[in-house]
């Protein structure tokens, strides 16, 4: 028994020594790749970063923030199977980040980023339209609050339109997705407008913005410009497909199912009004309901 106890103690001490050595090595390499990333020397940062990711995934959030920059550089500067391997590594990195730093990894934001990356490399990854749409749809409905990137919101909508035009999605699904995304855009436009107004008021009052505030102002203006542009494009696309000839039979068929759904009623009345479908008896029925 004493011999077993001694052997166990030796193994434990050796294990602790190895872990301590690995942790020290990780901290050293963390410092190396972080400084390299700050200098935009992404190729030099790759190997020490990879060591830290593989051996100490919970050491520091920088492993994921810097790792994203490193991998995006690798993706942009490679081709073929090598490029595809970096795409998959980045997708895995976002999953790993959620496992080790969940509170710093908003679900909607990072799922949307993963869907967008798969969309951007859909040919290389062999992704189909329906599969990509379901990826965005799941991300949007799981966490709308942090699903905010303009490009991803528009990609989500464009995939629905593509499926609708191919006869794989119904008019009801098209209009519901449009309404959901449009309402999200309205929320974000309101949000960024309020943030921008605070800074504009400071300038109007003769105050000088800090460098950080100037950067925020440019970012808010950029987001507002993109959200507005997306909204306009979405409206043009939907207007071509939302004719009275399509809306009246659609809402007539759906009325029994959704007659007590206030959101559906509001959207239906609004769309029929804006498309000048108000002469039909259905419009009056919807308004009264």
Describe this protein's structure.
The protein has helices at residues 2-38, 42-55, 62-76, 80-100, 107-120, 122-125, 129-142, 150-165, 171-204, 211-241, 244-258, 262-274, 281-288. It has 289 residues and is mainly alpha-helical. The protein is globular, with a radius of gyration of 26 Å.
Helix content: over 70%
What are the low-pLDDT stretches, counting only 5+ consecutive residues below 50? 6-18
Major sheet attributes: none
Strand share of the residues?
Answer: under 5%
Q: What is the rounded Rg? A: 26 Å
Structural class call reads: mainly alpha
Write down the secondary-structure element order. Answer: HHHHHHHHHHHHH
- End-to-end distance, in Å? 83 Å
User: What's the average pLDDT?
Assistant: 91
Give the CA-based shape: globular
What is the helix tally?
Answer: 13
Number of strands: 0
Fold topology:
Elements: H1 2-38, H2 42-55, H3 62-76, H4 80-100, H5 107-120, H6 122-125, H7 129-142, H8 150-165, H9 171-204, H10 211-241, H11 244-258, H12 262-274, H13 281-288
Helix pairs in contact: 1-2, 1-3, 2-3, 3-4, 4-5, 5-7, 7-8, 8-9, 8-10, 9-10, 11-12
């Amino acid at each position: 028994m004493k011999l077993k106890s001694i052997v166990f103690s030796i193994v434990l001490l050796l294990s602790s020594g190895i872990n301590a050595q690995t942790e020290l090595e990780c901290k050293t390499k963390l410092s190396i790749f972080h400084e390299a990333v700050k200098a935009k020397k992404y190729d030099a940062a790759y190997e020490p970063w990879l060591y830290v990711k593989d051996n100490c995934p919970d050491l520091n959030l920088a492993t994921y923030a810097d790792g994203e920059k490193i991998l995006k550089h690798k993706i942009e500067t490679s081709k073929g199977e090598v490029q595809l391997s970096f795409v998959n590594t980045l997708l895995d990195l976002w999953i790993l980040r959620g496992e080790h730093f969940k509170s710093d990894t908003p679900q909607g934001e990072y799922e949307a980023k993963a869907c967008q990356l798969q969309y951007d490399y859909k040919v290389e990854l062999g992704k189909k339209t329906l599969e990509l749409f379901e990826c965005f749809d799941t991300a949007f409905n799981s966490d709308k609050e942090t699903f905010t990137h303009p490009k991803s919101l528009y990609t989500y909508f464009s995939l629905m339109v593509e499926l609708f035009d191919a006869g794989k999605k119904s008019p009801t699904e098209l209009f519901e997705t449009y309404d959901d995304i449009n309402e999200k855009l309205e929320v974000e436009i309101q949000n960024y407008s309020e943030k921008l107004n605070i800074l504009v008021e400071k300038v109007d009052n003769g105050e000088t913005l800090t460098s950080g505030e100037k950067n925020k102002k440019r970012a808010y203006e950029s987001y507002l410009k993109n959200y507005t542009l997306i909204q306009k494009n979405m409206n043009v696309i939907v207007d071509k497909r939302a004719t009275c000839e399509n809306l009246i039979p659609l809402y007539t068929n759906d009325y029994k199912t959704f007659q007590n759904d206030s959101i559906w009623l509001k959207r239906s009345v609004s769309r029929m009004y804006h498309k000048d479908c108000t002469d039909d008896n259905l419009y009056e029925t919807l308004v009264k309901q």
